[in-house]
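Teaching note: in complex prediction, the entire set of molecules is handled at once rather than each chain in isolation. The prompt given to students was simply: 'Predict the structure of this complex.' The entities are:
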Amino acid sequence: MGQFTSEEKEAMKAEAGIAACAFVENGMKIGIGTGSTVKYTILELGRRIREEGLDVVGIPTSEATEKLSIEQGIEMVDWSNCQYLDLVIDGADEFDSDLHLIKGGGGALLREKIVAESSGGMIVVADASKKVEILGAFPLPIEVNPYGWEQTQRRIEAICEGEVVRRGPDYVTDNGNPILDAHFGPNIADPVQLEADLRSISGVVEVGLFTDTADVVVLAAPGGCELIRKPTARL
Ligand code: 5RP
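The expected output is the structure of the full assembly:
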């Protein structure tokens, strides 16, 4: 998406990341997403903890997020002592008008989906370059088991018109799994069906399509920030 300069994009990321913190209240358990937009959410939560005494705990979606969150003074909990999160704030690589998402550009899709499905609501922080008519220009990240990943790749290729490329020979996620980036092109007309089809392939651990998961997108554009709510939004 070349219509924005890198400075404009960074300013929009900061605006969205900070604005989403308006949903966070004292006493909440929150899921903390991964990426360069959520980074600003974490910094803002840290500021509110230090300056306003905000009292929250969080579960991170990646090791990088855990490290930054701890540096910012956000208390981390884990699944042994937490069954449910009030909300999660996370980024996206693309979103459409139904608030279906492509995620996993940062490789954290499995943990992000576990956290999103355990949360009372999902807030997506995004700059204007992430909004699309039809998903798929961004290559779809698919986390796969290392065993027989080449065969899993072939089976994905059978339903993907474009290339299916392993993300670097040595790249693995925080869970130790490779990622295959599937180049569907901007023509994922039925993301719900595609998510189901890909998840039915043995060897696929998780798919970066998040369908019917997000409630609100905090969308930053050069003119300011807007909230896009799904009609059935829980938040
Ligand atoms: C990581 C993700 C990120 O949320 C997504 O890649 C967006 O990241 P950024 O805010 O850096 O553009 O899904 O797995």
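Point out the following to students. The helical segments are 6-19, 38-52, 63-71, 109-117, 149-157, 191-199. The longest helix spans residues 38-52.
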